[in-house]
Amino acid sequence: MTTTTADVALMAHLIRRAGFGAGREELEEQVARGYENVVEDLLHPSADSRENLPDDLIRRYHVDQSELRQLDGAGAYWMYQMITTNHPLEEKLALFWHGLFATGYAKLNQARALLNQVDMFKRTGFGSFRDILIELSKDPAMIIWLDNNDNHDGAINENYGRELLELFSMGIGNYTEDDIKEASRAFTGWTLKNAEYMSMRAMKDSIWPYGRIAWHFEYREDDHDTGDKEFLGERGAFGGDEIVDIICRQDATARFICTRLFQFFGADEIDERGEAAIEQMMASYFESDYEIRSVLRTLFNSEYFKGEAARYARVKAPVETVVGAVRMAGSYRQPTLGVNQLASQAFYMGQGLLQPPTVEGWHEGVEWIDSGSLVERVNFAAKELGNPSNPGVRAIVDRLARDGGTAQSAADVVDGCLDLMGPLQVEDSTREAIVEFASQFGDFDLEADESVEAVANVIRLIASSKEYQLA
Amino acid sequence: MVTQNGNHDKTLVVVQLSGGNDTLNTVVPYNDGLYYDYRQTVHVDGDAVHPISDDLAFNPSMGPVKRLWDEGKVAVINGIGYPNPNRSHFRSMDIWHTAMPDEIGREGWLGRATRELDPTGDNVLTAVNFGRGMPRALGVRGVPVASVGNLETYGLFPDVQDEFLRKYALDAFAKMYGGAQGRDAVMDFLGQTGTDALKGADILRTAPAQYQSSIEYAANPIAQSLKSVAQVMLADLGTRVFYTQHGSFDTHSGELVSHAKLWDEVAGGIGDFYDDLREHGRENDAVILVFSEFGRRVKDNGSGTDHGSGGTAFVIGGDVKGGLYGQYPSLAPDMQLEGDLHYNNDFRMTYSTLLERWFHLDSEPIVNGRFEQFDFLPA
């Protein structure tokens, strides 16, 4: 099978969305395997193919990432997993759930509980939306975050019930205030073991040097409201499980979750064709008993996703920017203290892992961009990719020489780099500016060290372009 | 910027003491026997302090602030806090930043103030943060804030050492982002934002070049940040809100040594900053707010102190009416809040005073409520 430029471009698009991007050799291998097979590989991360750095290295090198007492170590640990993973979609999907079910450190003071939640997203994230919502409702970090430990028989706290409907499953306008109250009643008794003590400790954080105590879910029969509830037009002595069942049956839920997945994996803006793709995803949602894997399969295999409209139709999130640049540069290969810096970099760009601003999560799309965050994005990517001693950068130079010979003009080098870094489609003015920049180096002799450095500078410029901000 | 009648912009300079500054060892109740009872180990020497009243004294490291106090330029706000104190650094800092103690707020109070001060967002430098990553206090969607790690190297491609190469790269960046508009909304937005960022960096970089002063700031980060504030302020770039922070004040152990060093740095920086402004005849154009997310436990733990409540804030400036505001919380056992100091004035009173009397803004929508004001600034 011959590999065409279009095949590579399509595969690059898939891997940017369902992962964090890939170098040319890897893309060509994937193209040879076939698009739909690659989609299936991505959708089925298997435990036995885990070849990334073993965790015992982390245990040995990073005390902070092992004990997970503090936010920094926990964020860095997840960053490390995203950078080294062989299962990029599993990580990307966990990042999606983290943004949707946004739970933050500020109120919890429990970094480990947050990472346990992320692990739960990895464990259940491809499965039935019903199972995900049940696990979420039992998740200790979520219980404290949205006060379900204060939701008692006869004295409800609506916080979880409200956000479950508004932000996590159906969206505003599809239920009444009474539905919120009834859902809250059904979740009474879903709490933490020793909840009062745990929440008091979270509030009065002066735990140093005693460490954190692990949190566990507990269902308290004696604090559960067993009476009848009327929820979304149905009546019964519902508990949390039944509420989630009813939620998952709703058209509004299918539309909500498919739209959010579309915007995360497909495109920031929804046009008419995008709307049609969402309808297809909704059909898969119901046909598969709410299985997220099926919904994503439908999206990735849709004509919309493979077509021009979806190409570079998303602004990269800060975490994608960091992970993508580091993976492309090949600059992180073994545990070093630097990974804490990498997590901080995403924070500087506006996305601190495990610290979403509110339960609404991050505002995405163009809202990632302001003058401060753009400077951080550009400086970070430019530094990682402008360094010729990074193996990924060196690989681009070698490939350039292999494909086009060692003697090349400035314009050839620019076009070659744009191709190998994407292929990236750029505006004429962007290309002209980079070619003009590259021309200062004269003609390139890709065997000479100066030229290698000059190519790295061309790559630096491409990494700072407008177009590079998109995925 | 200089207004038509020759006046300069009124600016607010925030100095955040991150980690929870120990109130009792900052404004010391040096004649209260209970202080020495509870602080068997972690107390400052009553002979070395700088008395400001019969009951209270500044920490020995706060000499430069004491000098300004003597000039009547320092308002000490004792017992500042909010109801149901939260002793988590992150949550308590969020509360101070968003002025929302009861729910998780989305907008920062100074971001809102910045939006009111420059509603069209014309000046990309109305608010400038010195440090990496924007504090939530400044975060409001659509309000541009420059976050400056280092004023000397601020801008794009700071890692490129070769001067010419960096210049070429910046020229290319300007062309890439300044290309034709109108084909695609996202591209236009990116182009505009990149152009703004370049412009902001270009303007900011002019500040150190214009600056001349006889003051020599110390080499520590907060003194250097305050020097940068002075440079930008004296360049009259229209900046109204400056944000700086220093720490960590999270003194669970070895407090006496670290707390003294931290206050040496903060007080020295503030003293130098004030003198710098005075040298340029600008000490009446800035008000400095010093705050921390909480105070610390009344009883020490043998080496340091754990997280507490009830803090101290300072407001310092040429126009400030110095003195003691709020009440110093009692150390009597039955007056404590679970071993901590009880707050007696809401931090939003101080915010409201600054917003109304310094910036002449309506404080209610910014701090989410109407609060009594102090008289540390003229009405």
Features of the shown structure:
heterodimer, A: 471 residues, mainly alpha, two-stranded antiparallel sheet, two-stranded antiparallel ribbon, 26 helices, 6 strands, 3% strand, B: 379 residues, alpha/beta, nine-stranded mixed beta sheet, three-stranded antiparallel beta sheet, 12 strands, 14% strand, globular
Helix/strand-derived class of chain A? mainly alpha
- The fraction of residues in strands of chain A falls at under 5%
Helix content of chain A: 55-70%
Query: Helix share of residues of chain B?
Result: 25-40%
Question: Would you summarize the structure shown here?
Answer:
Chain A has helices spanning 5-18, 24-33, 35-43, 55-61, 63-67, 71-84, 88-100, 105-108, 111-124, 129-138, 140-145, 159-166, 177-186, 195-203, 240-249, 251-265, 272-287, 292-300, 303-306, 318-329, 338-348, 371-385, 391-404, 410-420, 428-439, 449-463, and strands at 190-192, 217-219, 229-231, 234-236, 407-408, 444-445.
Architecture overview:
The complex is a heterodimer of chains A (471) and B (379). Chain A has 471 residues and is mostly helical. In chain A, 59% of the residues lie in helices and 3% in strands. Chain A has 26 helices and six strands. Chain A has helices spanning 5-18, 24-33, 35-43, 55-61, 63-67, 71-84, 88-100, 105-108, 111-124, 129-138, 140-145, 159-166, 177-186, 195-203, 240-249, 251-265, 272-287, 292-300, 303-306, 318-329, 338-348, 371-385, 391-404, 410-420, 428-439, 449-463, and strands spanning 190-192, 217-219, 229-231, 234-236, 407-408, 444-445. In chain A, the strands form three sheets. In chain A, strands 1-2 form a two-stranded antiparallel ribbon. A two-stranded antiparallel sheet of chain A has the order 3-4. In chain A, helix 7 (88-100) crosses helix 9, helix 16 packs across helix 17 and helix 20 runs antiparallel to helix 21 (338-348). The longest helix of chain A has 16 residues, at 272-287. Chain A starts with a helix and ends in an 8-residue tail after the last helix. By secondary structure, chain B is an alpha/beta fold. Chain B contains ten helices and twelve strands. Chain B has helices spanning 33-38, 63-70, 89-98, 109-117, 163-177, 185-210, 221-234, 255-279, 347-358, 364-367, and strands at residues 11-17, 27-28, 50-51, 57-58, 74-81, 127-130, 146-148, 241-246, 286-292, 311-317, 323-326, 345-346. In chain B, strands 1, 5, 6, 7, 8, 9, 10, 11 and 12 form a nine-stranded mixed sheet that branches. In chain B, strands 2-4-3 form a three-stranded antiparallel sheet. In chain B, strand 3 (50-51) and strand 4 (57-58) form a beta hairpin. The model of chain B has no long low-confidence stretch (mean pLDDT 93). At the A-B interface, helix 8, helix 21, helix 22, helix 25 and helix 26 of A face helix 3, helix 5 and helix 6 of B.
